[in-house]
Amino acid sequence: MFNQIFPLTIVSSLRFFGLFIVLPIIGLYTDEFQTSAFLAGMAAGGYALTQIIFQTPFGIWSDRYNRKHIIGIGLIIFLVGSLVCAIADDITTLIIGRFIQGAGAIGGVVSAQIADLVREEERNKAMAVMGAGIFISFILAMLLSPLIASYFGLNALFLLTSLLCVLSLIVLYAKVPNTPNVKYHFQTDKMSDILKNKNLLVMNLSAFLQKFLMIFAFVCISLALKNEFSIPSSDFWKIYAPAACLGVLVMGPISVLVQKKGYFKGAMLIGIFAFIASYFFMALSLPSLYFAFFVAGVLTFFIGFAILEPIMQTLASRYPKAHQKGAALGVFTTLGYVGSALGGICGGWLYESLGLYHLSIMITIVCLVWALILGLFLTNPQNQKNLYLDIQAYDADSLNTLDSITGVIEWYINHTQQTIIVKYDDKHINEDQILQYLNKK
Question: CATH 3.30.70.100 in the chain, residues?
Fold first, then answer.
């Protein structure tokens, strides 16, 4: 499993590094280009606006064509946007470059490709590996971004991103396995099946809120460090790096627990309450400028982010039918980028208008509502299991009888692996009963 997904994890991590690297120092753009906090926030989250437009179409295309080539197209677009950002000498050109970066909207396609390459029983582990890779890129962005910007200028960040994007393309076509040839015994392209799924609706809302709070936090944290606590940008890494490392340490045990026990819903609630605690600490820090409380808020925020990121990707890939994974993950990722866009745009504006103290209290209330909705409406998918059959052992007539068996959710054929995959609910039927039913036909 690891050999299959590690190259794709490298591709995903390098791409996210290019998106993350501007976040820790986004407040500095107000001075660099003599612009407002609103436009600086647009530069941080503006890429998400074009992600909103292109994420779902990329996901749908990947369900119909080779996902690997769709990923390649997205990386080329991202490369063009990075180069535009690298040569930008004003805020307008920078925002245009970020828009182009966002048009390479392949986040959902990468997740769908990983889901295709591994068995569902290993998907939690695979998504955790990808999440860990993204988080490591996150740590490196926190460490390197302020240092590179201080010594080489802000544009050097995007030049590095461009070089890493070229490396991603090389890894993609040299090491990433081809998309499996999967044949589904039924096809329906109704987006209504995805948009009406209760669990996917909750996950889409969660994607929106998680990404909104992430970008919103980085805009506000960088501005608060600079304006409230007078911390120079070259020292930002002293706060971000320990927080990110703490997040990685938390991610491992939580991922193992979820993998073994299936506590998806509980782990998500823990992540949300970590967000609540983080904004609560930041709110407490500001009236009297208690820096220790502010740092505690940043540390707790990273813990929440580390818990939520891999679990949410896993859950979003488990609820849709197999042939709709690309489209469903496209919608899921789109809502995440809607959150990113609004978090970046609203972060600078609301910080200037209301101040971080009142914003933190408002965000705490929003997170409480989020936790309530998730607790009431999300179904934990721990009862779904898969049966893998030899493609040579059963004919079409036998397989078609699966449609009439209570408890069978869906079935499809992976021609690349010469395997029939039957997904079933073990509350209603077990593996032996399915085999007995098939062998009678």
Answer: 384-439
Rounded to two decimals, the pTM is 0.69
CB-based contact 276:368 (threshold 8 Å):
yes
pLDDT tens-digit series, residues 222-231 = 778 877 788 8
We find that the CATH architecture of domain 2-377 is Up-down Bundle (1.20)
Q: Residue 69 — φ and ψ, nearest 5°? A: -70, -35
Query: What pLDDT digit, counting tens, does each position of 9-50 carry?
Result: 888 888 888 777 776 666 555 566 666 666 776 776 677 778
List the end-to-end C-alpha distance of the chain, in Å, as a whole number: 34
Neighbour tally for 229: CB within 10 Å: 14
Decide: helix, strand or coil at residue 9.
Answer: helix
Residues in the chain: 441
- Structure tokens of 231? 């911390």
String of b and e for 34-67 (b: at least 16 CB within 10 Å)? ebebbbbbbbbbbbbbbbbebbbebbbbbbeeeb
| CATH fold of 384-439 | Alpha-Beta Plaits (3.30.70)
Pairing relationship of beta strands 182-184 and 408-414 according to DSSP bridges: antiparallel
